[in-house]
Amino acid sequence: MSDASVAAAQPWYRSLTRSQGNVLVAANLGWLFDGYETFALIISVGVALHGLLEPSQYGQIPVYAGTVIALTLLGWGIGGMIGGVITDYFGRKRAMMIAILGYSLLTGLSAFAWDWTSFGVMRFLVGLAIGSEWVTGSSIVAELWPDKNRGKGVGLMQCGLGIGFFLASLAWLFISPLGSDAWRYMFLLGVLPGLLTLWVRKSIPESDKWARANDKRVAAVERQRSGATLTAQERELTRFTVAGLFADAEIRKRVILAFFMSLATTFVFWGISTWIPPYVASIAGKAGLPPQQWASYAGLAYNGASVIGYAGFGFLADTYGRKPVTIGYVLLAFLSVPVLFMWTHDLVWMLAAVGFCGMFVSGQYTWMAAWLPEFFPTRMRATAAGFVFNTPRLIAWVGPLISGWLIANAGGFSQAAMAISSIYILSLLAVPFLPETKGKPLPE
Q1: Number of other CB atoms surrounding residue 105 within 10 Å
Q2: Which residues contact 6 (CB under 8 A, 6 or more apart)?
Q3: Is residue 402 over pLDDT 70?
Q4: Nearest CA to 423 among 401, 395, 404?
Q5: How far apart are CA 351 and CA 283, in angstroms?
Q6: pLDDT tens digits for 162-205?
Q7: In the list 8, 67, 104, 408, which could disulfide-bond 194, CB 3.0-4.6 Å?
Q8: Cα-flanking dihedrals φ and ψ of residue 337, to 5°?
Q9: pTM of the model
């Protein structure tokens, strides 16, 4: 049997090098801790606001909760765009370390908020740091993993968010009984990820694709400063990466279409997922069961299933292609909303519906990690991915505000969820106009 035949017969993971494995672990853990910080807020915000607001304001807690979550999302959007530019100019590895250290320290500071305003400001700052971590991880995994297994790699990286959400739910199950300050303990635990930067610094390589692209950029800039006449390629290298997103017609088209898809994914996720734990808690409370315990159960079901959704997308996309798998996930995500909020009333079955929702509403995020890096050249890959992944948050941050207002004033959870999920039509309209990239090399 030839060497090629032996290689083809081996499990896919046998072809990976140690460096590729370490990069996946680092990116997964960075995103895992992002997930913990984010879901720690979602699952404990109600308790936090009971301690930070006056009793007369309790009736509007959904509005205040939506505002705090929206501020986190707004910070995430701004920080993610800045982080993408930093990642393209200063390197994937260095940007990853800065992001992890930043959100760890700022999450710990959130535990010391003294009123809802200070809490909102601190969560905005946490969002700034969280936003840039995803783009560093998705870029470095995409650039170091082999073409035929890239979807699997970024899918496994994306699992980190669901695992982090799951761990936050599990932690809340044990921390929530500790009293009115339990939410503060949740955020103090968020300092621990900073230790990961010590391992990242010595255990993962810089992307060689980025290093080559950066060397060419530096050389082109030096020629420009010397007054030499630049080639068209050199002029592209010297152009600021954000401006470069709109200079080329094909790249501009991909940015715009992917933006609308990202907006749909992000708007629905934050407009619906935010309210699943309190929704299940409210149903449990009416049934005479402990609300916070059932909120934790809902978080565990949602996030446990989302891990399967994230990884499953990557494996399916490597087998069937990015386009059909993305369309399938979006359609199933849309179906999951009425299943959970309108057609399921028994609490046990409701947890199963929560899992179905998590698998596709949350799991579809892998399309961005799997597909976006394959659209853009190395010199602007992180900037483009960061722009598409994060700019929708500058719009989607109002999703929790809108759904919070609808819940409090216009008919409750079910009506809010169905209204928010209708935006999925944007994804279904955009997907057919994007290229299929399964198994193809990354653009240089």
Answers
A1: 16
A2: none
A3: no
A4: 395
A5: 12
A6: 888 888 878 888 887 887 788 888 888 878 777 777 777 777 88
A7: 104
A8: -65, -55
A9: 0.85
